[in-house]
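User: Structure tokens for both sequences below?

Assistant:
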Amino acid sequence: MAFNVVDGWTVPGFTHDRELGNGASGRVMLATDDMTSTKVAIKYLGAGLATDEAFLSRFRESARALSQLEDPNVVDLYDFVETPDGAAIVMQYAEGVSLRRVLAVQGPTGPLAALSMLGGTLLGLAAAHEAGVVHGAMRPANVLVDANGNATLTDFATSPAGTEAQSAPPYAAPELWDGAPATVATDVYAATAVFYECLTGRPPYAGRNMARLHREAPVPADEVPGPLRHLIHQGLAKDPAERPRSVADFLGALEDAAVSAYGPSWEAQGRGRLAELAALAATQPEPPKPKASRSSGRNPIVAVTGKQPGSGGARTRWILAAVAALMVVGVAAGATAMLRDGENPPPDPAPAQSSSPQPTLPAGGVDGKPLATQIDQAVAQANGAQFSYRQTGCCGFPATAKGTFGLVHGQQPSYSLTFAGSGSARKAVRGVIVEDRLYLRAGRRWKSSALGASGYSEVADQVRQGSSARNLTSLMRLATKLTKEESTETGTIYEGAVPAGQIEAYMPKPFTDMVRATGAQQIAFAIKIDTGHRPVAFWVRAGAEDGRHQMMHGSYTKWGPKPPIKAPRAA
């Protein structure tokens, strides 16, 4: 059977392959991107959600946050598409088996697999909570288990406000039944209820009056293994104030309980067992959807990370981090247009004339040295920001990164980030950079290596140097050409160029590598600063736009005081 359209339409630029799931919130299709041939999952929202303006308004905000989230325990959301025909979520297609299917086919998973599942879902929730998004209605159908036993979360924020309890009754915290909004505490409760089901084969409460059971029935912790009972009591506490204050706190309690009861190898054993159960479940038919659930139920895909909604059926193009090197970078005018928040690119500027000509000024009439000092001072006062970074082009060196950095006077910035490169460092990982060390998360532990050595350490150094605001101001100081665009409400763009010789003499390795790899005679750059002289966005290019070139580009948001980024305790 062909699946050319869903409810009379198809997201432009995609061809449907087959149906993956169908539930109350919408129909999920496996599709192929016509431009990149990449497989994706598209959830076409049901008419009830697609016409619910309150839900759409709320989800747009969540989609914008999720689109900035790159975490191995959360399925990527690529795009949220709204057209006159309907609304749809374009997301990562991640092969695997839903936890709901595993439980229906296999029953209880055993304590080690249950702990591994809970750890993975808590890591995904922690990443989403840090981005300001709560799940709201987590259940086994929203947990995907891959061939390696890793648990990944999907369907964030897809239940309309006030309906979360009805969307997932067996996992809904008491306060949701009273009309309270979904919070971090309700996500902790739902994750614990799913954990309980993995241990026992059934949710903690079942019956006609779910609201009363969640509010009043004793926590049934006696039915789980003794060493894990306190986790159930903590996570299923009736009062949200008595639950762990954060997912990170709950992860710490989980780690302590698991190591104490099952030894330091508990995680590897649990993940292996979960992989076995998923492989067995994959050979069995998909179980019927629970009648009590109003969720998409059968959806084996994970969450979305979407771009800002388009209009009139237009779709924002995306490329996976794994194929970042294939990204097509715009010409210089196009890159400047991106910095100008979508305005039409300006004509090629004529050299500006100073009212009092000064031979020492760069071509273009802007003195970069005092401007760079203003930016450095503003950045130092702000103390840190959130950032994104990407390097693309010929000759290798692809890199992507998102996260937060903090500044300490006299030291290199410290980073907490998710990043990826190429080769053995192609998979996105979470890391911390402090001084000259990289710390990579390996399960619940951290491993340390010297920054810049090889693999992820080399990519991490590339990201830190390329996204450094101090290096951007160094370009301003070295510029032999520097022009100023017209100021707008969102900031002012400065565009300039630095000779290759100056780059080789004064700039760090990522910049010199760009020059050597492309054979460029100069590096061109553009920096957008806000009214407080803090960087907002930038691009740096070596080589001709339509030829052999390398390009860095990135953005900064939420400048302001940040808590110190400390080195984790490495194993």
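Moving on to the next sequence.
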Amino acid sequence: MRRTAAAAVAIATGLASFLTVSSGPATAATSIEYVVVAEDGVAPDAAIAAIQAAGGSVVARNDAAGMYTVKSAGADFRAKATADAKLIGVTQKAMGYAPGAPKLEQPHQGPTGSNGKHGGVKADPLDDKLWGLDMIRADRAHRIESGDRGITVGVLDSGLDASNPDLAPHFSRRLSRNFAADMTDIDGPCEVASCVDPIGTDDNGHGTHVAGTIGAAANGVGVSGVAPDVTLVELKGGQDSGYFFLEPVVNALVYAGRAGIDVVNMSFYVDPWLYNCRANPADSPEQQAEQQAIIAGMRRALNYAHDNGVTLVGSLGNENTDLGKPPVDTSSPDYPDGAAYPRPIDNASCFDLPVEGPHVIGVSAVGPSGNRSYYSNYGLEQISVAAPGGAFTDGTSQSITNEILSTYPKSVLQARGWVDAEGNVVPARAASVFKSCTEAGVCGYYTYLQGTSMAAPHASGVAALIASRFGRSDHRHGGKTMNPDAVERRLLASATERPCPADTPACEGTTQFNGFYGHGIVDAYRAVR
């Protein structure tokens, strides 16, 4: 069963630290849960009154973002709320199972090619496979700065498997939060009675992979991260099924600002719209209002996080699209299944969020050759830098080792049949799945993924090294802090410039700044010098 008391979920996940939870009147079993965003400048009391007048009961509120979680049994609640001038729009929470391939990157299941190695002797046993760390010169950077425990990096993703011996040493259970309770209609049966997955778990795998690239410990097991000595914080804002809805993402960003998180990695887009448009003629009035609400809610949350010291890093996406010249969107809304329809996209009024939101450092992906990955989005308006994201096909090379190797949950690999019940990698996956154990017998698991989701954490790791090296004492939260604009300036200025490929009209710009590579490929060594 879906959670029935939003107040209980808020308290269980730690939302009560910044959310006000209201006990509204009892709702019928047919109640539907919504997320409502108020207009700019509307006081919380006025927004709540408008929601109640439309027939809704507020069960949780995030005043920093002007966002309210609401239950209503009224069939006309959405129309009434949308019509109220105090409210921007309403988005209905997921209500039906959406089958098909998960949205987030998944381990490669095709031919694996050679099991070649990149680089020489490294700190950890699998580091010789991390061509991405070689490309950004992380090993040289670590001689100067390997990260400060006082710098916290939030992984806003599907969770984080803290049982992995590469992630456990520097994982902050105290700061970590789960903002996305399981919904059985999209995530399958709940793993625990509360439907709030315990901190330190990941039933998708995507967040664990991202976390390893950022900060896997250099501890003699598995792999090393870009910033192996920073503190990792789980900000679970994604469902197990791979969806990222407005409410948990906004709550996670506001929490990050309040908790003093230094860097937040965002390797996703906010569902159900690939592009949120202010007034797309292809959309109904209610759909337009919903997208306006998502735009406003995300803008406020991103501004709040940035203004409270968070460096924001986002992936550009994997549609091989110039985000400044978007094509017809045929994938939205991606929930519920089968709801998508063709939507012409106006670049001036439509946004891919969060990467096209304020203060977000947009990252494209490159393969081992340094060329833009064939799937990576690009564009002069949105890009900041490029980073290793992997490319199974990289020029004339086709190999699983062209992708990014990082940490992955054993439970997810076992569910796929790639690791057996005894914890051994099955022979058919020996070239793409690895097991590495400590002397005490604690084992971690590792596999390959590709995507701009893998590029963003390389950039987030470099940002964390910058803050570790040049940050100052954080008198509010302890540890260190650094102004996010200063972090971004150094990240961009230290990147290795790369010109557009010859005879490639899609790549616009100069060697110093272009749509494929932005200011260049991130360089950890230059960044900390």
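User: Anything stand out in the second?

Assistant: Residues 6-92 form one domain.
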